[in-house]
C-alpha cells in the first residue's frame, strides 16, 4: 500500500467540484435573471415613453425629443437582454416534430443530436461576440454618437456593450443546454446498454450531415446561385430537424457567404452588422408593444367577457355556441395579434361551455382551433408585422388590409357552422344541444359593460391608425397603456401578474426579433447569391405569368405548412417571393394578406398544426385525443383554402381600407 497521499482519492474532491459547479451555475442564473428583469422593465418604459410623447404632441403640440431614437435602440437592447432567458425558458423558436420524437423514443440519440444543436447556438453567439468586439472598441474609443447633435443624441457604446454581454451570457446558456444533454446521455449509458449504439448512430448521422453540407458548399462555391439554392434546402432540413430557427438561418447564411466570398471575415462582419443595426427601426417597436397589450387583455379577462357577450347574441341560433366562439375569437384577435394566445384562452373558456351544452367534442375543439387563426389575420397581427418588416411594407397599411379578409373568414366560419348544424347535426351536437337555445341571457346593462372595454381598445388602436392620429408603433403603445389601465380598473392586476406580463412580453418579443436578425442575414446572403435576378430572368424567359407564380407560391406554402411553423415558412419564402414578383409590380399589401392566410392553414394541418397542439395540451382531457382536434379542425382548414382562393382571385377585397 502506498503511503503517498497524492495517489489516494480525497473524499472531499467531488463535493468541492460539485460546490464550484453549483456556484457557477447560480452565478449564471443570476446574470440571466438580472438581464431578463432589466429587459422586461424596459418594455414598460417603452410604453410610457410613447404614451408621454403622443400625449405631449396631441395636447401641447410639443413632442418629446428623442423618443423615436430611444425606441429604435430599445429593440436591440431588449433582444440581447432577454435572449438567454428566452433560451432557458425553452421559448427560443424551433420545430419539435423530429427532435421531440427522437428524445421520446431514442433518448440517447436525441441527447447527442440536441447537444450539437445547443453547441451550434453557442458557436453562433461566439461569432456575434467576436465580430462585435471591434465595433464596441471603436465606439468607445471614438465616442461615437447617434442622433442629431444639438437636438438629441446618445452614445453608441452602451448598446454595443449590451450586445456583447447578452451574446456571451446566451452562449453560456447554450453550453449549459449541451451539458444537460450530456448528463442525460451519461444516465442513459448506465441504464440502457443499447443506448451507446443509439448515441453512436446519432453522432454518425450528424457528422455525415455536416460533411455533406461541406461537400455541397465546396462544390458550389464557384456558383453563387447554386450556393443560394443549397442554402434554401439546408434551411428547410435543419429547421425541420429541430435546430433553433434563428441559429439555423444565421449559421447557414454565415457559411454560405463564406463559401461565396472565400472569406469568413466578411461573413462575420455581416453577422455583426445584422445583430447591431438590423432592428434599429422605429417600426419594430410594434412587436413588444402589441404583445404587451395582448398579455394585459388576457390577464383582465376581456376574452372571457367577449365570449359571454357573443354567446348571448347567438344563443337562439342553431349551432350558436360555435358561432359565438368564432365571433368572440374575431373580436379578441383585434387586441391580441396571436393565434396561439387565442387558442390558449378559448380552450379554457368555450370548450367546457360547449361540452356542458352537449356539443360534440370534435366539433368543440375544431371550432376553437379554426377560429384561433383569426388572431394572425385580424389586426394587430404578429405575422403581418413580420411580413411588413421582411417586405419593407407599411405595417399600418397591412393592419387595415387585414380587416375585411378577417371579417370574410369569420363569416365563412359561421356559414360553415350553420351548414353543418343543418345538414350534419350529429357531428355538431347531441339532440339536447340544439334543444336548449334560451341559455345565457344577459341584462342589457351588463352586456354593454362587458362590451365597452373591447370596443374602446379596438377603437383606439385601429381608429387611431385609420384616422391618421398616430402610427402603428404609437397605436401599440396607446393600446398597451389602455389595456394596462383596464386591468387595474377591473382589479385584475397584481405585482405577480404585472411581472408575468412584462416577462412574457420580453420573451415573445426577443424570440421574434432574434428571428428577424437571422432573417436579415439570410436575405442579404440570398441577395448576394444573385438568386433574385436569376429568378427574374428565368420567369421572363419561361413566359410565366403572375397567376402561375402566385399559384406555385401558395402551393409551396401550403405544403411547407404541414412540416414547418408559420414563422419559419415566412422567413424562408417571403424574401424570395418579394424579389420574384418585383417585375410584375405586385401590390405588396395584397401579397402579405394571402401569404398570412396560406401560412395560417398550416396551424390546422398535421403533423405540425401548432394551434391543434396548443389546444390539446391546454385542454388536458383524456376523452379528446390529438386526432380528434385535427379532425375537428379539418372543415375549417378547408374553408380557409376557399377563402384564400377568393382573396387571391379578387385582390380588391384585401385593399378596401389599405
Name a few traits of the molecule.
2 strands, two-stranded antiparallel sheet, 658 residues, globular, single chain
> What separation lies between the terminal Cα atoms?
88 Å
Structural class: mainly alpha
Order of helices and strands: HHHHEEHHHHHHHHHHHHHHHHHHHHHHHH
- Measured by DSSP, the beta-strand proportion falls in under 5%
Describe this structure as you would to a colleague.
The protein is mainly alpha-helical and 658 residues long. It folds into 2 domains: 95-280, no CATH class; 283-654, no CATH class. Helices cover 78% and strands 1% of the residues. It has 28 helices and 2 strands. It has helices at residues 12-60, 67-88, 97-105, 107-142, 157-191, 195-220, 224-241, 245-261, 264-277, 286-299, 302-313, 320-336, 339-356, 361-372, 382-391, 395-401, 403-423, 425-428, 431-435, 444-466, 472-489, 495-529, 531-542, 546-560, 566-581, 588-601, 610-619, 626-649, and strands spanning 145-148, 152-155. Strands 1-2 form a two-stranded antiparallel ribbon. A hairpin with a 3-residue loop joins β1 and β2 (152-155). α6 (195-220) packs antiparallel against α7 and α14 crosses α28. The termini are far apart.
Summarize the structure.
This protein is mostly helical. The chain has 2 domains: 95-280, no CATH class; 283-654, no CATH class. The protein has helices at 12-60, 67-88, 97-105, 107-142, 157-191, 195-220, 224-241, 245-261, 264-277, 286-299, 302-313, 320-336, 339-356, 361-372, 382-391, 395-401, 403-423, 425-428, 431-435, 444-466, 472-489, 495-529, 531-542, 546-560, 566-581, 588-601, 610-619, 626-649, and strands at 145-148, 152-155.
Amino acid at each position: 500500500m502506498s503511503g503517498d497521499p497524492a495517489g489516494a482519492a480525497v473524499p472531499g474532491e467531488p463535493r468541492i467540484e460539485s460546490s464550484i459547479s453549483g456556484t457557477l451555475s447560480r452565478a449564471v442564473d443570476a446574470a440571466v435573471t438580472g438581464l431578463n428583469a432589466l429587459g422586461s422593465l424596459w418594455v414598460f418604459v417603452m410604453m410610457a415613453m410613447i404614451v408621454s410623447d403622443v400625449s405631449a404632441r396631441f395636447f401641447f403640440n410639443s413632442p418629446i425629443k428623442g423618443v423615436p431614437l430611444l425606441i429604435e435602440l430599445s429593440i436591440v437592447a431588449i433582444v440581447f437582454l432577454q435572449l438567454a432567458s428566452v433560451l432557458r425558458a425553452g421559448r427560443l423558436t424551433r420545430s419539435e416534430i423530429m427532435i421531440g420524437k427522437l428524445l421520446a423514443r431514442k433518448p440517447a440519440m436525441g441527447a447527442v443530436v440536441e447537444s450539437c444543436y445547443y453547441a451550434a447556438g453557442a458557436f453562433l453567439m461566439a461569432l456575434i461576440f467576436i465580430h462585435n468586439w471591434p465595433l464596441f472598441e471603436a465606439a468607445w474609443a471614438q465616442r461615437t454618437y447617434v442622433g442629431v447633435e444639438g437636438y438629441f443624441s446618445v452614445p453608441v457604446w452602451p448598446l454595443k456593450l449590451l450586445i456583447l454581454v447578452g451574446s456571451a451570457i446566451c452562449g453560456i446558456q447554450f453550453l449549459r443546454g449541451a451539458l444537460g444533454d450530456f448528463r442525460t446521455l451519461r444516465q442513459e449509458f448506465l441504464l440502457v446498454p443499447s443506448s451507446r449504439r443509439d448515441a453512436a448512430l446519432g453522432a454518425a448521422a450528424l457528422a455525415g450531415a455536416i460533411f455533406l453540407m461541406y461537400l455541397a458548399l465546396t462544390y458550389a462555391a464557384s456558383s453563387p446561385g447554386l450556393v443560394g439554392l443549397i442554402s434554401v434546402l439546408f434551411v428547410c432540413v435543419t429547421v425541420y430537424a429541430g435546430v433553433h430557427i434563428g441559429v439555423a438561418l444565421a449559421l447557414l447564411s454565415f457559411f454560405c457567404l463564406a463559401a461565396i466570398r472565400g472569406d469568413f471575415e466578411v461573413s462575420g462582419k455581416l453577422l455583426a452588422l445584422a445583430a447591431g443595426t438590423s432592428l434599429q427601426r422605429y417600426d419594430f417597436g410594434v412587436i413588444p408593444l402589441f404583445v404587451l397589450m395582448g398579455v394585459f387583455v388576457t390577464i383582465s379577462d376581456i376574452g372571457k367577457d367577449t365570449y359571454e357577450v357573443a354567446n348571448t347574441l347567438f344563443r337562439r341560433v342553431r349551432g350558436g355556441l360555435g358561432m359565438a366562439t368564432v365571433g368572440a375569437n374575431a373580436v379578441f384577435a383585434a387586441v391580441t395579434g396571436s393565434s396561439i394566445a387565442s387558442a390558449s384562452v378559448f380552450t379554457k373558456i368555450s370548450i367546457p361551455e360547449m361540452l356542458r351544452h352537449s356539443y360534440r367534442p370534435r366539433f368543440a375543439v375544431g371550432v376553437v382551433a379554426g377560429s384561433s387563426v383569426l388572431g394572425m389575420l385580424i389586426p394587430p397581427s404578429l405575422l403581418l408585422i413580420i411580413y411588413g418588416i421582411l417586405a419593407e411594407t407599411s405595417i399600418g397599411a397591412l393592419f387595415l388590409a387585414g380587416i375585411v379578409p378577417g371579417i370574410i373568414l369569420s363569416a365563412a366560419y359561421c356559414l360553415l357552422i350553420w351548414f353543418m348544424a343543418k345538414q350534419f347535426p350529429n357531428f355538431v351536437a347531441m339532440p339536447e344541444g340544439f334543444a336548449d337555445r334560451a341559455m345565457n341571457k344577459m341584462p342589457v346593462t351588463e352586456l354593454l359593460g362587458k362590451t365597452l372595454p373591447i370596443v374602446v381598445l379596438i377603437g383606439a388602436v385601429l381608429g387611431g391608425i385609420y384616422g391618421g392620429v398616430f402610427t402603428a408603433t404609437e397605436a401599440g403603445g396607446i393600446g398597451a397603456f389602455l389595456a394596462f389601465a383596464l386591468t387595474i380598473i377591473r382589479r385584475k392586476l397584481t405585482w405577480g401578474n404585472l411581472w408575468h406580463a412584462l416577462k412574457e412580453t420580453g420573451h415573445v418579443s426577443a424570440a421574434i426579433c432574434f428571428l428577424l436578425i437571422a432573417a436579415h442575414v439570410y436575405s442579404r446572403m440570398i441577395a448576394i447569391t444573385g438568386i433574385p435576378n436569376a429568378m427574374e430572368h428565368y420567369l421572363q424567359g419561361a413566359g410565366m405569368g403572375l397567376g402561375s407564380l402566385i399559384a406555385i407560391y401558395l402551393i409551396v406554402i401550403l405544403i411547407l405548412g404541414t412540416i414547418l411553423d408559420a414563422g419559419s415558412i415566412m422567413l424562408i419564402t417571403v424574401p424570395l417571393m418579394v424579389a420574384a414578383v418585383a417585375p410584375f409590380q405586385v401590390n405588396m399589401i395584397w401579397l402579405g394578406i394571402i401569404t398570412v392566410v396560406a401560412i395560417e392553414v398550416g396551424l390546422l394541418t398535421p403533423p405540425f398544426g401548432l394551434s391543434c397542439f396548443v389546444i390539446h395540451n391546454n385542454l388536458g382531457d383524456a376523452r379528446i385525443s390529438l386526432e380528434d382536434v385535427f379532425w375537428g379542425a379539418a372543415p375549417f382548414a378547408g374553408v380557409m383554402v376557399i377563402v384564400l382562393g377568393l382573396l387571391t382571385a379578387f385582390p380588391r377585397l384585401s385593399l378596401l381600407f389599405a
